[in-house]
Amino acid sequence: MVSTFPNPSSVDLSRVRLSIRSLQPQLVEWRRRLHQKPELGFQEKLTAQFVSQKLQEWGIEHQTGIAQTGIVATIRGNNSTEKVLAIRADMDALPIQELNEVPYCSQHDGVMHACGHDGHTAIALGTAYYLQQNRDTFGGTVKIIFQPAEEGPGGAKPMIEAGVLKNPDVDAIIGLHLWNNLPLGTIGVRAGALMAAVELFRCTVLGKGGHGAMPHQTIDSIVVAAQIINALQTIVARNVNPIDSAVVTVGELHAGTAENVIADTAWMRGTVRYFNPELKGLFHQRVEQIIAGICQSHGARYDLDYWSLYPPVINDATIAELVRSVAQEVVETPVGVVPECQTMGGEDMSYFLQEVPGCYFFLGSANPEKGLAYPHHHPRFDFDETVLPMGVEMFVRCVEKFCN
Ligand SMILES: [Zn+2]
Ligand SMILES: [Zn+2]
């Protein structure tokens, strides 16, 4: 813990930056400690304990056990304004065996912070610490939301249902994702759709098995499944406005046991992604129509489960502009702010953004020269830790701009 933390008396930007950069060793220490003890969604007990213990140490009012393991910290500024800004960080890890050979490697078998949420939690802690020490530099209230289970089944929705956006009512929300698709020193910000809606499906084609040499006595589930998989691609090609982007992927297909046996059943799983919220419902309907039609034409039956995981992440234009202007100051070069940063990946930050205006943005964290450029969810994923104070600086300056 830093005991001699400089307290800037005015909003002197270079002093703010220097103060925040002096937090680098603590940010790295917290991040590495979290990295060593990764926990899956809704099991973030050690993580939540660590966060709560730090907040307690710094005298920050907070509530624990929200939606099982979530935490909300509340920091009130000394300037006179009523604004309430929320900052969201996710805390969960993934069921991946880490392959990095680093001193801070995961100590939990088969669980790894392979998406950077350890960094998000450290950045949110650094922001809480800085704001608590510098309450004269902003007004209103800042709520810092430490959310469980972003990787699924989703912690944002139960936290909202538990009332984290109420009392005091949140006016706007911001959040960031460390992003290895962007180089260190860049920030991806855009108004409108940033990340896609995620829908999932599972289908079993029920045919009639038999001898591989006597197909006329069977209903070949593999032939039926093959036609379904090809036809599903026509939804994007022929049912979606070509101006909109969308993806249908069948990622899993299992059928058959031998080369001379016609498979009784074929089983597949897939995902659908799109940005335009008006497309909700279309894919479910078309996937079912295609599967039903093809199965019927072959005399096969089917079982389909189709559900929506997360809606699209849609940024509010005004808050996105505030974040973009802050990013411009933080990166110091015009090329450092990247509006072309949309991805078909999904995020349950979307639920917060459905409730209040806000902006989710990407903080470039890849550094290929240091070998830190593996994609998210890879067993060798890691990021350049010099990005951590940049994250704190983004949040702190957004608070100063929004709450003054
Ligand atoms: Zn992830
Ligand atoms: Zn993530």
**Count of discrete domains:** 2
Mind summarizing the main beta sheet? 8 strands, mixed
The helix/strand order is: HHHEEEHEHEEEEEHEEEHEEHEHEH
Query: How big a fraction of the residues is strand?
Result: 25-35%
Structural class: alpha/beta
Helix count, DSSP H or I runs of 4 or more residues:
10
CATH superfamily of the largest domain: Zn peptidases
Radius of gyration: 24 Å
Mean pLDDT across the residues is 95
User: Order of strands across the widest beta sheet?
Assistant: 1-2-4-3-5-16-6-15
The separation of the N and C termini measures 28 Å
Cofactors, ions, other ligands = zinc ion
The CATH level-2 architecture of the largest domain is identified as 3-Layer(aba) Sandwich
Global outline:
elongated
State the helical fraction. Answer: 25-40%
Please give the number of β-strands: 16
Task: Kindly identify the CATH topology of the largest domain.
Answer: Aminopeptidase
The level-1 CATH class of the largest domain: Alpha Beta
Q: Are there runs of 5+ residues with pLDDT below 50, and where?
A: 1-11
